[in-house]
Amino acid sequence: MNKANSHKKLPAQAIAAIFVFAVLIALAFAWAVFADVIILRKTEGLGGAERAISILYVGDSFIFVGGLPRQLQAIARASGIDTSYKDISRHANRGGTLKENMENAIRELQSGRYSYIVIHDQNRKSLSDIEGLLADIQTLCNAAVENGAIPVLYDFAGIAAHGKPDEERLSISINAYRQAANSNNAILVRAAEAWVYAYQAMPEISLYTRFDPRGLHPSRAGGFMSACVFAAEVFGIQVTQMPKGSIYTGSDALGLAQAAWDFASLPRE
């Protein structure tokens, strides 16, 4: 047998099939990144100023899916507030509960780097173990105060029905976070209530991801909405124009920002 013929070239059809398959894989990956199914996650955002306000995020994927930390940083920067952050949140089924994050969070707080700690646990825990939720929040709030950080409780609309926040079931979580904020003298970012308000004011909005195999999560629009609520309730910022570098630039963005400000301006119950 001729050695030169022992390595035959692939037929043109096979080469074409391989090329098409590679293109499809690339397109699927690009769609998954765009839809936040695959997250090219940024866990740290460094501030430009030496005395930047530093934020530690602790919780589950409701924090990082949708890009809340990055979007809040962009909003604050547009208003002249320099921030940095570290996000140690994880998916709920991969160690993302407060109890599982506790040791790592306290170790971070003890470094003395942080101005604020943002605390979130899955809404469903308030339905099944409210005492455990309150105890975990209290432990982290105490550790924050001991190490010079301000505790911020982040209540998210993580229970939905028909693509909208489930007000009835969320009411349990909302009340639990209110109780925890009052008991621990913590700031409460009322994103769950703000989302309910936004869906009433703008019924056509879509703040959750669609066709998400991981389950319910905020979209980038949802992350932007939550960041606007956070900016209003913690920093007193009203978003009136799109911040430079925002990862959400949808046509409804400024409407969401206005809804966030209008909600934050309502008297607290």
What features would you describe in this structure?
This protein has 269 residues and is an alpha/beta fold. The chain is 49% helix and 11% strand. Strands 1-3-2-4-5-8 form a 6-stranded mixed β-sheet, sandwiched between helices. A hairpin with a 2-residue loop joins β6 and β7 (164-165). α3 crosses α9 (220-235).
Features:
269 residues, 10 helices, alpha/beta, six-stranded mixed β-sheet
What structural class results from the helix and strand content?
A: alpha/beta
Distance, first to last CA: 88 Å
Q: How do the strands line up in the largest sheet?
A: 1-3-2-4-5-8
Q: For the report, how would you describe the main beta sheet?
A: 6 strands, mixed
Arithmetic mean pLDDT: 86
Spans with pLDDT under 50 lasting ≥5 residues? 28-40
Please state the overall shape, judged from the principal axes of the Cα atoms: globular
Counting DSSP E segments of at least 2 residues, the number of strands comes to 8
The helical percent reads 40-55%
Strand content: 5-15%
Total helix count? 10
Order of helices and strands: HEEHHEHEHHEEEHEHHH
How large is the radius of gyration? 22 Å
Briefly characterize the structure.
The chain has helices at 12-34, 61-64, 68-78, 98-110, 123-128, 130-146, 167-184, 191-201, 220-235, 253-264; strands at 44-45, 53-58, 83-87, 116-119, 150-154, 160-161, 164-165, 187-189. With 269 residues, it is an alpha/beta fold.
Describe the secondary-structure layout:
Blueprint (H helix, E strand, L loop, with lengths): L11 H23 L9 E2 L7 E6 L2 H4 L3 H11 L4 E5 L10 H13 L5 E4 L3 H6 L1 H17 L3 E5 L5 E2 L2 E2 L1 H18 L2 E3 L1 H11 L18 H16 L17 H12 L5
Parallel strand pairs: 2-3, 2-4, 4-5, 5-8
Antiparallel strand pairs: 1-3, 6-7
Helix pairs in contact: 3-9, 4-6, 6-7, 8-10, 9-10
